[in-house]
Design brief:
The complex is a heterodimer of chains A (about 130) and B (about 325).
Chain A (H helix, E strand, L loop, with lengths): L1 H22 L10 H8 L10 H14 L4 H9 L3 H10 L5 E2 L3 H16 L10
Chain B lengths: L4 H10 L9 H4 L7 E3 L13 H12 L6 H8 E2 L4 E3 H10 L3 E4 L5 H8 L4 E6 L8 E10 L4 E6 L2 E7 H10 L4 E5 L10 H13 L3 H14 L4 H14 L2 H14 L4 H13 L3 H15 L5 H12 L18
Antiparallel strand pairs in B: 1-6, 2-3, 4-9, 5-6, 5-9, 6-7, 7-8
The chains are: A mainly alpha (about 130), B alpha+beta (about 325).
């Protein structure tokens, strides 16, 4: 019972802190940040119509979906400019995420094993 | 870029990763060292999928920031992707007060950074185009005679990789590379726009003192770069230094009269300082300049706020300046 209450308190605390951080304006109202000014000066205009607040929410949701700890999300989102958040929101699924070679080696190994067992190849047999 | 054009062209060819790509020695600029190894660069063997945190901790440590991969992991690692994203590597660098300077897509800047004593974080694709295996490593040097690159990579403290293979994996990784600079430090080969954009990233991330140091250094190095002045103006504005902000915005507008952002910000500053008439005039100009750009809506908001302002008899606190037309 007490643990349950404690857990509820923690959840409330976390969502409250997320809310208060989220309410802080990234720049002073009425002033255009330098990063946004630079992006606006570019000719591509690829992100012209994307809402910055929407992109921020989108990145928050996607990071959570991909298993990032809720307590870490705000700090991570706050480290990026609006333009970068829009890029991330658009590309998170396709963007290269540096990890390591293990996954690929694993897949190749499994494929080779299947081929071995089905008799297509016999590279694992002793000479 | 002060390197000769043929050297750049040669390196660009070397890095396309085609079968005929020449060895490092053929593409190296004449004034570049024949070999470099930043052997004092720390090493953190990575845990599973954690090459991002390990590589970034290596880079930050080399730049004088006391961090461990364990500190960095919660800032960059994405469990569902089993890896770390480039933009988040950049963001985490900012959170530790360093300026992430993204290098150009030829190897010249890598070589110049190594020569300046800064290791380079690189994204490699160790797999194939269709079946990528993304990997972050830290380039700590090269040897042109032996045609190898030296890396802190994964669980290997000192990996020697044939230069062409390194170039190929970096090329397949999209030629992404960056170094960490102490704010205020500017590489000799740096490009004004790329440097100021990196400083603006610090500002956006709320690392305002770091951004201020970077803008100040940029203004000393490139006094005619309007965005550096805009940046300084924004820092001054945030600090409540109205005179400093006014001077910087005026300079930005003088250098780039068509910049809607500087106009908008000047208008907002004027409104705050009790100069509604001049604020109205500047916001009208800003609105005209911002039409059809990504800044149109934010300028419209500023305009609406200024237009709804009551006339203030207190008088303009920024009075004796010549405002731009």
């Amino acid at each position: 019972m007490r643990i349950e209450r404690l857990r509820r308190a923690c959840v409330a605390l976390v969502s409250l802190s997320l809310l208060s951080v989220g309410l802080q304006a990234p720049a002073a109202a009425g002033v255009v940040g330098t990063a946004e000014a630079i992006a606006a000066g570019r000719s591509d205009g690829a992100h012209a119509t994307v809402d910055a607040a929407l992109a921020r929410d989108d990145v928050r949701a996607k990071l959570a979906e991909f298993g990032v700890d809720a307590a870490e999300i705000e700090g991570r989102v706050a480290a990026l400019s609006e333009v970068e958040l829009q890029m991330l929101a658009d590309q998170i699924e396709q963007a290269p995420a540096g990890g390591e070679l293990l996954a690929v080696i694993g897949i190749v190994f499994v494929v080779l094993l299947i081929l071995e067992f089905t008799g297509v190849i016999d590279i694992f047999k002793k000479a | 870029m002060n390197r000769s054009a043929p050297a750049v062209a040669a390196l660009a060819v070397a890095l396309t990763g085609c079968a005929a790509s020449p060895p490092l020695a053929d593409g190296l600029a004449r004034d570049a060292p024949r070999s470099i190894e930043l052997s004092a660069t720390p090493f953190y063997p990575q845990e599973d999928y954690q090459c991002g945190p390990a590589a970034l901790a290596t880079l930050l440590r080399a730049s004088g920031v006391e961090v461990e991969p364990g500190t960095i992991a919660p800032e960059v690692f994405v469990p569902g992707l089993r890896g770390s994203l480039q933009l988040e590597m950049i963001g985490a660098t900012r959170r530790h007060g360093r300026l992430p300077y993204v290098l150009s897509t030829t190897a010249d800047e890598m070589v110049a950074e190594l020569a300046a004593g800064r290791p380079v974080l690189v994204l490699q694709n160790l797999g194939a185009e269709r079946l990528p295996a993304w990997h972050y490593a830290v380039l700590i040097g090269y040897d042109a005679e032996r045609n190898v690159a030296f890396l802190r990579s994964g669980r290997t403290k000192r990996e020697e990789m044939r230069w062409q293979r390194f170039a190929k994996t970096w090329h397949r990784g999209g030629r992404f590379a960056f170094t960490t600079l102490v704010p205020g430090e500017i590489p000799t080969h740096a490009e004004a726009s790329r440097y100021v954009e990196a400083a603006a990233g610090l500002e956006a991330a709320g690392e305002r003192r770091a951004a201020a140091a970077a803008y100040d250094a940029a203004i000393v190095r490139w006094p005619n770069e309007p965005q550096a002045w805009l940046g300084r103006g924004n820092i001054c504005y945030g600090d409540g230094d109205r005179n400093g902000a006014a001077d910087a915005y005026l300079r930005a507008i003088l250098l780039a009269p068509a910049d809607a952002a500087a106009r908008n910000n000047l208008a907002q500053l004027l409104a705050d300082a009790g100069c509604p008439d001049e604020a109205r005039k500047q916001v009208e100009r800003a609105a005209a300049l911002a039409a059809g750009t990504t800044l149109a809506s934010v300028v419209a908001t500023t305009r609406a706020t200024i237009e709804s302002m009551a006339e203030r008899p207190a008088g303009c606190q920024l009075g004796d300046r010549a405002w731009p037309d």
